[in-house]
Amino acid sequence: MDIAKIASEVLNLEADELRRQAGLVGSEFQKAVNLIYSCKGKLIVTGVGKSGHIGAKIAATLASTGTPSFFIHPTEAMHGDLGMIGSDDAVLAISYSGESAELLAILPHIKRRDIKIIGISKSGSSLANLSDANLNIDIEREACPIGAAPTVSTTLTLALGDALAVCLMKLRDFKSEDFAAFHPGGSLGKRLYLKVKDTMRKSNLPIAKDDISLKSAITAMSEGRLGSVILVDNDGKLSGILSDGDLRRALEQDSFDINSKAIEFATKNPKTLDNPDMLAYDAFRLIEEYKIQILIIQKDQKPIGLLHIHDLTSLGL
């Protein structure tokens, strides 16, 4: 049995169906988007079985991209959860066959309240006929060899949900800042809202005068626990940075003297940043590009903070 060949056939079949369906998108899809966009309340997503699992994911995607949405199981709806659907809401009902008994049972109660229904089902199905707009999922065949397990149909349904979400994002002018506001705890959100000034170290910085000896610099480096000491002149302006790497290279020199001035062995033009409003993720990329451990944040050539690569990685950036 050629497993790789079977897997490729499944992927190609699903990809071909997505491409075919892309050419069929038209006025009904536009109508569905308009119904959701004009909805003053929430979009309630519902479905059973595999369609329900796909529906829950679609609801989560919509909710995180500017369209208030949540999932309700049709059975739970029949036992009280219909009360969660308000008169200003709309419903996205999903069923490949369009004949799921549990789903069809709740639709008359929803329509009686003049709540708009967007269906995702086969054309001509009961669900399609009850819907104000229906996104047809008339696939050529499932990838399942016995034609029983939803495969191509669920992939198409999920993709249609993504297409709805992206169209609505465009209509709402949903920006990265909005996405970050909905995802403050995740790494994606942090990349979009955390700024350098929010993450940089501002106090107890390892700063010393540039005329100190290597011996004193080593002490300051140890106390700072960052493996480096920032050297400044009498006006507090940046002169250089002495890292543990600089110190090791100094030790390798025959002329090494612990009482020599630290500035003689320091990096005179360290990488700096003058914009504390830069996104921390962008600063992290600079640190990686420069292949450094510490990025000094300065104002008027005076150090006001620093970013250490370990601080940024610990934030999940």
From TrEMBL:
Q: Which Gene3D superfamilies does the UniProt entry name for this protein?
A: CBS-domain, Glucose-6-phosphate isomerase like protein, domain 1
Q: Name one Pfam family in it.
A: SIS
Q: Which residues form a coiled coil?
A: none
Top-rank taxon: Bacteria
PROSITE patterns the record matches = CBS (PS51371), SIS (PS51464)
Where does the CBS domain lie? Answer: 200-258
In this chain the SIS domain maps to 32-174
Q: Which SUPFAM superfamilies match?
A: SIS domain (SSF53697)
Q: Which UniProt keywords apply?
A: CBS domain, Isomerase, Repeat
Which InterPro entries does the protein's record reference? CBS_dom, CBS_dom_sf, GutQ/KpsF_isomerases, KdsD/KpsF-type, SIS_dom, SIS_dom_sf, SIS_Kpsf
Q: Listed GO molecular functions? A: isomerase activity
- Family according to the record: Belongs to the SIS family. GutQ/KpsF subfamily.
Q: What is this protein called?
A: KpsF/GutQ family sugar-phosphate isomerase
- Provide the species name: Campylobacter vicugnae
